[in-house]
Amino acid sequence: MDNSSFAKAFNDAVDICSSRFFAPIPAVWRIKRSLNIGSEKKLKESIKIIDDFAFEIIKSKAKQEQYDWRNQDLLSRFMAKTSSEIEFDDEAKKRKFLRDVIISFILAGKDSTSTALTSFFWLVNGHPHCDRLILNEVTTLDPTFTYDDLKSLNYLHAALSESLRLFPPVPINSRLTVSDDVWPDGTHVLKDWFADYSAYAMGRMEKVWGPDCREFKPERWLHGGDGVFKPSDQFKFPAFIMKTIVVALMREFEIIAVDGGATAEKMMDPPYTLSLLLKMRGVFLVRLKKRRFNPN
Predict the structure, then answer these.
(1) Segments making up each domain of the chain, as ranges
(2) Alpha helices per DSSP H over 64-153
């Protein structure tokens, strides 16, 4: 995104919202909000910038020719839905719905992808044999590789899954119950209760992953001796996967972690900080070294 004011406002809004969750006295930020001072005033200003940015995108898209589901971008598909299938009381509510769609996808994809890739390259740097096996796969692809080509990269898929198991971008998730219910195991929950789960904790549970649960072992995702990726139960591993950026970077560069990467000792006390996402503490310093061979 080339709109730096939007990017800064978006980051500020996420950080301020995150700080609300960790505030020891929630009444403090509520008082700030009612008085429109401090961080809450900044949040209000940031939201205004974000809204203006999103509404401008919607306005620009609406000026284009008739949009329908065949367009490749997500906003066009939602706009087509709102025109044909979803009814709104007025145009303002429709615009706010589309704004929420834009913000949701930016929030889901912007920092989560960069956070996941940071953890991945840190882990791979600490496990050179994994780096070699990934590179062996990556260099077999044609420079104009397609989505279907990526499906053949079984070891890379396994390494990404293992990275996401140990360092999920969203470490904790929370839901609010809308009515009384009884879960399949007999647990009773009442309306307005919070139901939380920690993907970070689940990924490090010995009873789920075995005694080597704290180790980075992509091989645990490969089927027997044929090296084919075997997905895990979605409830055991609720995370998403990315490949394209890794392939594009590793084909062209050696990515060398200044701190040496994720050794076994460092993984016992990983350098992370908790906000809405599980980000690496400080910065991840790397050296990029152009590969000397031609992958083709």
Answers:
(1) 4-107, 112-290
(2) 74-84, 91-125, 128-138, 147-150
